[in-house]
Amino acid sequence: MSFEDIPVPIGPVYEGERIRAKQMYVELGGPKIDKKFELCRVVPAKEIKDGSVKILGLDLKDMEEGSRHPIGILIEVAGEQLEEDLEAVFERRIHEFCNFVNGCMHLNQRYTNWLRISKTAVEKGFNSFNLLGTVLIRLFKAELPIVEQAQVTFYTEAKEIVKPHAIAMEIYNKRDERARTIHDSDVDMFYGCVLCQSFAPTHCCCITPDRTSLCGAINWFDARAAAKVDPKGPIFEIPPGDCLDEIAGEYSGVNDVLKKRTLGEIDRIFLYSGMEFPHTSCGCFEAIDFYIPEVNGHGIVDRSYGDVAINGLPFSAMANQTGGGKQMPGFNGISIQYIASPKYQQYDGQQSNLKNGTETIVWMSSTVKERVAEFLPSDLIDKIATEADVPDINTLKDWVEKVEHPIIESEAYKAAISGEEEEEDWEEEGAMIPVGTQSFMVPGAGGMGGFKIILKNCKIHAESIIIKKIESKRKKK
Ligand code: SF4
Ligand code: ZN
Questions:
Q1: DSSP state at residue 286
Q2: pTM above 0.70?
Q3: Percent share of the chain, pLDDT over 70
Q4: Mean local confidence (pLDDT), 67-75
Q5: Is any ligand 1 atom within 6 A of the Cβ of residue 213?
Q6: How far does the centroid of ligand 2 lie from the alpha carbon of residue 197, in Å?
Q7: 165 lines ligand 1 (CB under 6 A)
Q8: How far is the CA of 218 from the centre of ligand 1 (A)?
Q9: Does residue 101 contact residue 3 with C-beta atoms inside 8 Å?
Q10: Is 130 left (phi over 0), alpha (psi -120 to 50) or beta?
Q11: Could you give the number of structural domains in the chain?
Q12: Rounded distance, CA 334 to CA 325, Å?
């Protein structure tokens, strides 16, 4: 495969390249753009004009420097051995292959995709989606030999993207719906994925029916199909082995495989806990599940939420804390689907003597709540606060009491409320207190726009500390 006709170098060495706002020629999709998507479809060969690239909307060279645009990427593929189950897995490779291009940065997936093209790349002549499409088609065919033919369509204008975006959302929903039909106890094989190791070298996803990958893009069915056609590829089987703890979701086989695939860094995972031996997070999680020690509950915020969460931190700040392939108790990158699973953080629920993990959820951004409300118990959903109900931790405390949220019956909640924290235990064990605990808060939503930091009986070692004032967008309106 040759890329001699492409004006910028192409290869895995460019994965991980960051393009800052000042370096970018244009931004496509991302948090400031309403509609964006990327989708792969398996279609009959007769519907494909192999190698063709279509652009519906402005081409790169017609875009103004520094501007932002919608982006839809539709890749249609054909091949005798292809099946629909492979679509999601192929789609996930768009991220990797775009990042092979020197001067192209791709983040996230599905309906949160975000690209930047650098000024340097455009100066060198990488000024058309025809070039990006050609690179994608060549890489798809070279890296996934069962793809025999491929064509790409880019949508870059608001009016052009509406229809294909709606179709894409419907397809994502159908995939998610199917994923909800089975559970971990129904299968005897789990799957692993290391596609994100170029960004987070110690991260390996364990994909089970109840735990759709944290990027939300690969469910158990998708992973099964991928491992079948390419067992030595980045998605592979994980025989669960012995179940060591059913509530925590700890399996001997999962621990063994993860140890091998993370170069020995991670050797123990509780699939159903955000607090003890949690699953690692790379960076492309759909949502962050975070612990709120003041009420012993969990909060969940997703990528599309533009304001600060109940703990005073925006998604981006928490994402830095959560990602990178570390096990970070109290900060867990998750898929939206996992919230709907009966296994959601069930270990944490049990530790608080609750019926299940779902009962630990005390706060969600409204963007998350809208998406999962229909899957959560009807007697709980109204007790979960959003930003519309409570602006800060103090009002959240009042809220859980007022609505009689199940969390208020947990011993840890009672201890937190009465100020009897387990500080001594923490100190004895030398455990790390996750940033964002009650000993270090930057509310930002505390009433007058100021901020308050309370450090009580606290030992902190940090190489540097940066405190930035974060204005709530809600208040500015
Ligand atoms: Fe694979 Fe996990 Fe990355 Fe998704 S988040 S691409 S499943 S490693
Ligand atoms: Zn990732």
A1: S
A2: yes
A3: 88
A4: 98
A5: yes
A6: 8
A7: no
A8: 7
A9: no
A10: alpha
A11: 2
A12: 13
From the CB of 257, is ligand 1 less than 6 Å away?
no
Ligand 2 center–CA 199 separation, angstroms: 7
Which of 179, 207, 239 lies at the terminal end of a domain, its last residue?
179
The tokens 């699953």 sit on which residue? 279
My answer on whether 193 and 280 are in the same domain is: yes
Atom of ligand 1 nearest to the CA of 204: 8
Closest CA to ligand 1's atom 5: 215
pLDDT range class, residue 460, cuts 50, 70, 90: low
pLDDT single digits (tens) 29-40: 999 999 999 999
219 CB within 6 A, ligand 1: no
Coil, helix or strand for 338? helix
Q: Is 206 in the pocket of ligand 1 (CB under 6 A)?
A: no
Average pLDDT over residues 41-65: 98
pLDDT the model gives residue 172: 97
Domain span including residue 141: 12-179
Which of 179, 206, 236 is the last residue before a domain boundary?
Answer: 179
Mean pLDDT of 406-433: 68
Is 205 a pocket residue for ligand 1 (Cβ < 6 Å)?
Answer: yes
Q: How far is the CA of 196 from the centre of ligand 1 (A)?
A: 6
CB-based contact 77:71 (threshold 8 Å): no
Q: Does any ligand 1 atom lie closer than 6 A to the CB of residue 334? A: no
Of all residues in the chain, what percent carry a pLDDT higher than 90? 84
Report how far residue 372's alpha carbon sits from residue 389's, in angstroms, rounded to the nearest whole number.
17
The Cα–Cα gap between 2 and 135 comes to 10
